[in-house]
Design goal:
Layout (H helix, E strand, L loop, with lengths): L5 H14 L5 H13 L8 E7 L2 E7 L4 E9 L9 H15 L1 E6 L11 H15 L7 E6 L1 H15 L7 E5 L11 H4 L9 H12 L22 E6 L5 H13 L4 E6 L14 H18 L1
């Protein structure tokens, strides 16, 4: 099926942001906040800031959201930038589609606080949700880009410490390999308007802060995924990160984990952000909503 006309508008927005001169981490943070702030939030969406075992977070809910069904969401941004604010609009659409409350976690970021702080914060947030009486079978952990890799890392860490698994995991355009070994870094280099191997390796160096880039909780393509819940992977066909999903899918299958991988033709990195203007974003989020409802009942 041919891509929508709106896709050209989205690609131009991404290219314009990518062309901005950004020298510092703060430059990247402000740029991300600015482009996402231009997207409209539906009037019936409710948000509430909350402390989660010492980590700031934000509840995002729609009228359709059920209190007992929760998506713990781990935002993207290379572990250096991104926030509940940058993802609020996308997560509002997810809250509606999944009929769930979404808890967007503002985990600690590098370079101020590098690996493994985001993994620790994610585990802590999940434990907090359990302490609030949310049943694990009514919870899903999800995330995009770095947050997609972090979703798998958090699930592995939760299994390791013996916590009950959530009902499912959702990874959008996941970054799961700190060494950027996938062939798609080359084959999709010209097509991808937002991510490059060079930038990925620079960001990975900052996040890892001298630690092993093959660490399973940083690069979950090297993790044992045995015992994880069912997974849904969504990735765009023009992404350099495409093979990160392919490798994650292989690791999950090897471990006997039910996994679905969807490659969305012509879509850029985390196209879901643009749900207010992009039909394919709304369709992808609707599909995630179906997956969440399928596994949480």
């Amino acid at each position: 099926m041919a891509p929508s006309q709106e896709l050209n508008t989205v690609l131009e927005m991404i290219r314009n942001r990518s062309a901005e001169v950004r020298k510092t981490t703060d430059d990247y943070r402000l740029s991300y906040e600015r482009i996402m702030a231009s997207l409209p939030l539906d009037d019936d969406i409710k948000t509430k800031r909350v402390g989660v075992n010492g980590v700031p977070a934000e509840w995002i809910s729609a009228p359709e959201s059920q209190d007992g069904r929760v998506v713990l969401y781990l935002h993207g941004g290379g572990y250096l930038f991104g926030s509940a604010r940058t993802h609020r609009v996308m997560l509002a659409h997810l809250a509606r589609a999944a009929k769930a409350r979404v808890l967007a976690l503002d985990y600690r970021l590098a370079p101020e606080i590098p690996f493994p702080a985001p993994v620790e914060d994610s585990v802590s947030a999940y434990r907090w949700l359990l302490s609030q009486g949310i049943a694990p079978e009514k919870m899903v952990i999800g995330g995009d880009s770095a947050g997609g890799g972090l979703t798998i890392a958090a699930l592995v860490a939760l299994r390791h410490v013996g916590e009950p698994m959530p009902a499912a995991g959702v990874c959008i355009s996941p970054w799961a390999d700190m060494e950027a070994t996938g062939q798609s870094y080359t084959t999709n280099a010209e097509a991808d308007p937002s991510v490059s191997k060079e930038n990925i390796l620079k960001i990975a160096e900052v996040y890892m802060d001298g630690k092993d880039p093959k660490a399973p909780l940083a690069s979950p393509i090297h993790a044992d995924l045995t015992g994880l819940p069912p997974l849904l992977l969504q990735v765009g066909g023009i992404e350099v990160l495409l093979d990160d999903s392919t490798m994650l899918k292989s690791r999950a299958k090897e471990a006997g984990v039910p996994v679905e991988m969807e490659v969305w033709d012509d879509m850029p990195h985390v196209w879901h952000h643009f749900a207010p203007i992009l039909p394919e974003a709304r369709k992808a989020i609707a599909r995630i909503g179906e997956f969440v409802l399928q596994h949480t009942g």
